[in-house]
Amino acid sequence: MFELSKEFRFDAAHTLNRAIEAESSRRIHGHSYRAQVTVRGTPDPETGMIVDLGMLSRLMEDARQALDHHFLDEVEGLGPATMENLSAWIWRRLDGQVPGLACVTVLRDSSGETCRYFGPAA
Ligand SMILES: Nc1nc2c(c(=O)[nH]1)N=C([C@H](O)[C@H](O)COP(=O)(O)OP(=O)(O)OP(=O)(O)O)CN2
Ligand SMILES: [Zn+2]
């Protein structure tokens, strides 16, 4: 069994309602994110690949375009623009298209934060 990951980066703005740091969080502010899509499986003996990384990259491009340089509060179906919701939203966007989809990880390097979503069944 193997795991294979591909990453895209996006920069986006949002607001958040929080119990702490409420005022600054409600102000529009931005973050730089990385999103990693991980597939799990066994390589096809002929191709040596679980999935072609180029194909994975193409499938991820639609999600990247919907997030990069967008105001996340306005992204359809996202809800409060947390790392949890971002990883679940990317999962839903790819589910059914990416064979062996195992998890979606959203990272915010500036603050050392990571959120990993394994899908609704996990
Ligand atoms: N469970 C979660 N908690 C928080 C999330 C989240 O996605 N999931 N997100 C935020 C905010 O986006 C917030 O802007 C980050 O704030 P904070 O952690 O207080 O850190 P900084 O303001 O120091 O972060 P910078 O990225 O350096 O601006 C809060 N909580
Ligand atoms: Zn924020």
| Ligand identities | ligand LPXRUNBV, zinc ion
Main sheet: strand order: 1-2-3-4
The total count of strands amounts to 4
Rg, please?
15 Å
Low-confidence runs: none
Based on CA inertia axes, which overall geometry fits?
A: elongated
CATH class value? Alpha Beta
Question: Which homologous superfamily in CATH is the superfamily?
Answer: 6-pyruvoyl tetrahydropterin synthase/QueD
Largest sheet: 4 strands, antiparallel
Fraction of residues in β-strands: 25-35%
Helicity range: 25-40%
Label the structural class. Answer: alpha+beta
Whole-Å distance between the termini? 18 Å
Per DSSP, the total helix count is 3
Output the CATH topology.
Tetrahydropterin Synthase, Chain A
What's the CATH architecture?
A: 2-Layer Sandwich
* Chain-averaged pLDDT: 97
Question: In total, how many domains does the architecture comprise?
Answer: 1
Helix-strand pattern: EHEHHEE
Function: Catalyzes the conversion of 7,8-dihydroneopterin triphosphate (H2NTP) to 6-carboxy-5,6,7,8-tetrahydropterin (CPH4) and acetaldehyde.
Cofactor: Zn(2+)
Catalytic activity: 7,8-dihydroneopterin 3'-triphosphate + H2O = 6-carboxy-5,6,7,8-tetrahydropterin + triphosphate + acetaldehyde + 2 H(+)
Protein name: 6-carboxy-5,6,7,8-tetrahydropterin synthase
